[in-house]
Amino acid sequence: MNRPKLDPAMRQAVRKAQVDEETGALLYGYLATRQKDEQNRKLFEQMAADEKKSTRRFGRAYPAKSWKPSRWRLMILKLLSILLGFTFVVKRMQKDERLGQARYEQMKQTLPQAARMLEDERAHEKELYGMLDEERLHYVGSMVLGLNDALVELTGAIAGVTFALANTRLVAMTGIITGISATLSMAASNYLAERADGNSTAFKSSLYTGAAYLITVALLVLPYLLFPTGMYVAAFAVMITTVLLIILFFNYYLSVAKEEPFLRHFLEMALISLSVAVISFVIGIVAKNVLGIDAL
User: Fold this and answer.
1) Residue of 146, 124, 137, 131 whose CA lies nearest to 51
2) Is the pTM of this model over 0.90?
């Protein structure tokens, strides 16, 4: 078989495509074994078989010395599928597998058969993963409700009492009491609202809302438990940084799993949370001075 001579950059692109195909085959096979839903299991088995077939075809046409996937990358992808769900991992892989536009145009000229094969397989795979059904994505709205409310309410409350109380332990106690009470209130309100709308999964929806709220509370209070009593300014700085990291991570997750715009949602949530924190901070200082409270 006469094969076109490949330059180093194109050889690397072909090798990457081969590695991606093999990684996909192993990952989808693993995900198939974890599915309780029969349709999801069959879809992953089909995706794994398709990737394996592509690997063999690619390997015969464009052999490489070494195109085995990284064990570490595969391990990380498996761990992410447990923590963040299979939808996130599958769509993240799809983004990783896409060649840069310039490199893809070059491949179409140098290796038209390989380019067509990749294009057809990506389209087929996108059609298949569009049929996958992951339970947690049905409750993204509930998670957003719990997360967003906790960020706004707790960030404001903690910012308001940090400089008023000037004591990390007192702030932590306030945050824990406020946070747990608000978690129960938010979960109950979500349950009642969903029941009123006739949602048969109202209880599970409220659990997702409560869990998102409680996890956020724990992360925001943690700096005040770790820092010494007098280092409330440092604890406050870490708390604000944590808020931004939570917003960053959650919006990145949504941008991949739900294919929603990242930057706009991130800036919107960050602006709201930080604005509430600033307003609450001012209220806390004013209240301390007006009431003449000294917690030291």
Assistant:
1) 124
2) no
